[in-house]
Known about the structure:
The protein is of the alpha+beta class. Among the domains are: 6-101, Orthogonal Bundle (Multidrug-efflux Transporter Regulator, Chain: A, Domain 2); 264-433. It has helices at 10-17, 21-30, 50-60, 81-97, 336-341, 384-395, 408-413; strands spanning 6-7, 36-40, 43-49, 108-112, 115-119, 125-130, 158-161, 170-175, 184-188, 194-199, 204-206, 209-211, 215-223, 232-239, 244-250, 256-263, 266-272, 281-288, 293-299, 328-331, 350-353, 357-361, 367-371, 377-382, 416-418, 423-424. β25 (416-418) and β26 form a beta hairpin. The protein starts with 5 loop residues before the first strand and ends in an 11-residue tail after the last strand. 29% of the residues are buried.
Amino acid sequence: MTERKIISSWKDIAKYLGLEVRTAQRWEKDLQLPVFRIKKYNKTFVFAYCDELDKWIEENATRELGIKRQFLKDKHLILGIVSVVLIALIIFFFSTVFPGWRHTIPSEFKIRGSDLLIYDENGKQIWSYNTRLDLDPARYQHNKYMQSSGKSAQHINVFFKDIDKDKNLNVIFAVQTIDNSNERVLCLDKKGNPMWSFAAGKGIQYGNQLISSDFDINRIRVEDVNNDGFFEIIVVASHKIYFPCRVSVLNNKGSVIGEYWNSGHLSCIEFLDLDIDGTEEIILGGLNNNYQKPCLVVLDPRNITGSSPQEMGTRYYSEELGPGTEKYYLLIPRNEVGKLLGIYEFIPAVDLYKNKRIQISTSLSRVFYEFDYRLKPTYIHLGDEFNFKFKNLEREGKISIPLSTVKANILKSKILYWNGKAWTDKPTISDLWKK
């Protein structure tokens, strides 16, 4: 008895008939094309017998179907189709009954005590990692970008990325504890095994004071800044008590490829290819304690070393650090409202907009600044919140000058740029990066 030949998928059935898959499915529905189904393990499989398809074609060829019969010339089917179906059923069975039999993709996480619990896309736990530390669950509550505006300040501390192009997702995990001790970044493989670890803090001498290694992780991002397919990990960590902030750039193996220190905490981070050369600059906003002003910093990942520009001989200057390699360093002027509302103002967020616009604002007085890609100010806006706060302070007798004297063009003229040697009010890139 001759063995009947079988086709076991819509794709192969359509190919045998010389049709698109949707056309073959429509013929089965409307014209009774002989296709059969098997339902097993909650899944439906389709198949057809080649001889029945041939017979159906011959019987219907004289009708108004316009069927081209050239497909009858090529009947070389894939051998062993039944075996393929059986193998598919076996794989499906093991994947359902034994979910650990094949690798599942990490998609979600939970924090429980000292454990990081990782779940797949179906909500099944696939592995856990014990840090042996008291993790702070409150710091892991918002781990997705909630909106495009303000995302530079959002606290994301768990990332699922294939950082080394091996087609497996890694888990980049910022270890953040209740007592802010031993904070570090871990890279875990697809099974939860540690690949490398990086300590966020580092002891350093500033002025006459030895700063301890007790640093908190402010921001962490996983970004392919040079577009080579391998991801870099950028860690922004600030001292628990004092002013130093350490910006570290790690490669996919956890090695430090760039380190920059700012004398003041940096609170937000964005990425933008300012000069369209294929490498994204790192844009950071925060505070410079030495000058008591908000600061905006632009770093090029190809050369990150040294310190923010500080006055020598002060407590904000470290002899351990050389001059910084920042591309741009801006000091944003204080205004009457900000001075009265607090000792320090900082930049809480960096927002990127269309038409090559970069926007920042001051944290207390809420003055908005827009810059082009050369960090030249293009627009300054005293918002409603600024006006409201100004009038309140005026009613309280704390401000004697009229609101009309606070002008955007005056604030614009007071923005300072570091040219690599001195401060200037002319928009400029650092001498180090001038071509």
